Amino acid sequence: MTSSPVCWKCGASIEAQPLPLSRLAECDACRAELHVCRQCLFFDTGKASQCREPVAEEVRDKTRANFCGYFQLRPDAYQSPDDRAAEVARAELEALFGLRK
Length: 101
Fold this sequence. Notes:
Elements: H1 84-97
């Protein structure tokens, strides 16, 4: 891995976690479970089951620890929230209802 692994939920470094990640591993900063689909290299929202591993059993909750044997740590799992869409929608509502100050 070229970059230091970070938590999928908060973006804190999880470099101190022993590898391979245990099913019970948690982020020290936010206590999020780490052996989850969102932290996996195969996680892909563009796929029907959100997994690029064709033989993996489907996991419904992508944010809960699971027993998937295909799990591979994805170092760049954290995606910062994109607030632009919310800001645009808020501005449109303000314009529509004349709430601008």
